[in-house]
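Before relying on records like the one below, remember that each one covers exactly one chain. Contacts with other chains, cofactors or solvent are not represented anywhere in the record.
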Amino acid sequence: MAQNPMLDEVVVTATRTEQRLIDTLADVSVLDREAIEQSGVTGVADVLARLPGVEISRNGGPGATTSVFLRGGNTSHTAVFIDGARVDSQSTGGAPWEAMPLSMIERIEVLRGPAAAVYGSDAIGGVIQIFTRKGQAGYQPYVSVGAGNQRTWDVAGGVSGAAHGWDYAVSASHERSRGFNARPDTPTANPDDDGYRRSSAHAKLGYQFSQGQRLQGSLLSSHVNAGYDTTNRTRDDRAKNRLHTLNLAWNAQWSERYGSTLSVSDSTARYETTPNPYLTDTRIRSYLFQNEYRLGAQLLTAALERREDHLENDPIDRSRHQNALALGYGVQLGAHSLQANARYDDDSEFGGETTGSLAYGLAITPNWRARASVGKAFRAPTLYQRFSDYGVASLVPETSRNVEAGLVYSEGSSHLSITVYRNTVRNLISYVSNTGGVSACASDRGCYANTARARYQGITIAGGTELAGVRLHGSVDVQNPKDLDTNKQLARRAKRHAMLGADWNAAGWLLGAEMQTSAARWDDAANVNRLGGYTLWNLTVSRPLAKDWLLTARFDNLTDKQYELARTYATAGRTFYVGLKWAPGQ
């Protein structure tokens, strides 16, 4: 299933302020709760993989280490937020996608393209904002259960509501699967099934204590215990992920022109393996004071932000902080739109970094709109890359320059977008061996270094329409994610990938058919180990059984295609899942 094509809906990710999707000058996709439930998938990365410009890689089943690539960028080149809380790992870099519970998510906004001038470090490839469930007027409980092959089952439940200025949402879920052997073709690996179990809880509470004044707090906790295989045939290796996020925000509309947001957020991403001991623990605390001033068709923004990172990864126990000032200006005059942003980040370790972006849009006709933008972004090295046994303290930030242009069409239920982009990254951090002549390496095995340049360029075409009662939607990406120094294709990213789908109603059933396809990729930077291309066929079915009851089913990889997202790691093969949900009044 594709994202909701209603372009009049409001998004916040493009500029950190509310604006209609049709008015944004960035390339943004939206997934709402209805689209998430109709997709039938159980993982956040899996539902993202159905969006334009998104690829994923995974070392085994749904509980295994997962990477998300936006426009061919590294997984660490995407800034990720859950209810405003920044989520990241200061060891590997990037968010722990396998730890995120999909059942508690209300909405996902995906911005493709650099946004460091708004969000600071990491937003080289884009930004993904995840919003958990929020209470609406009335009282709305729900309970869902589901089961599938590989002894997969899940149960979730919650309640939400709003009255007398208060709104609330509370939920909990548990998932479990026996899984499959993650490395069946590796003779030295344990031949057991590598399943997973995930337990999650979520709470959100808000209070509108006067006109234009609102307080809100949200909390998310998720624990994952998943099997994985090393080269020990007798050992049951387990990976344990713990993700916690907390956000407190005060939104104030002081006058018709001026509003502000003050928020404090905290997140913890902890990864541990047993019986082979390994532990890494990242804690991020952020403070944001955002101001908005409207003057007719103009919007001025100013934000002060502080981010504090802390990493424990024996023997590392290090902290750092970044203080930032961000300014923005947007205006819409008739057919013309302009958005300018600038930001200065002062890092306690490496100093200052200035980023900026400029975007222009032109409404050619009521249905056609052109847009173009330029932007600069950066990513600070992780604390592990600087201070581990393989770290180099003198590492400098990765920097990028992006140019893009797009054309958007919208009329009724039909929409089309074409975006062409070119993003060049300098000082790309890579792992090098000591034989490469990198004298700064303290370890004989090698270290991290600013040795590479990369270019992510391509074209994304996405659209949807309704024809004879059938809703058609899809996207095609043609890209060339390349290491400019070696002229090699970047690992685990294809030059072509696409998704095509159709949804229709028949005798009370909502039916969906989907095709996902990807060209061949390389598993390594040297382009020696090839990962073959693949095409997957999926089906979804849903039907209201009675008042307040909904039945859903999903059949993935109908042809039982054997393929790899990471070398020597298997994928699930043909799977099915059936779910039943009770949700009165929803």
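The helical segments are 33-39, 44-48, 116-119, 383-387.
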